[in-house]
Amino acid sequence: MDYESILNQLVDGELSEYKIEAKDAFAFQQALRAFGKRTYIKGRALRGGAIIYTATNIDK
User: What domain of life is recorded for the organism (predicted)?
Assistant: First the structure.
């Protein structure tokens, strides 16, 4: 899975949110930590371990 592309789409506003299931959360977290604009992305945990990521307001 190309998580960097998904993260860029979140920051660019192409995606309003992205839901990651618990089984894929570790791999996504590794990509998020390496992502240069990670401070612009926040996650909200759901029951069962899924996480919904959204972009915060950023100045372009």
Answer: Bacteria
Asked if 21 contacts 28 with a C-beta cutoff of 8 angstroms, the reply is no
pLDDT for 56 equals 87
Tokens 């660019």: give the residue. 12
To the nearest whole percent, how much of the chain has pLDDT over 70? 93
Instruction: Specify whether the CB–CB gap between 52 and 25 falls below 8 A.
Output: no
In angstroms, what CA-CA distances link 13 with 1, 2, 9?
20, 17, 6
Tell me the pLDDT band of 1, cut-offs 50, 70 and 90. confident
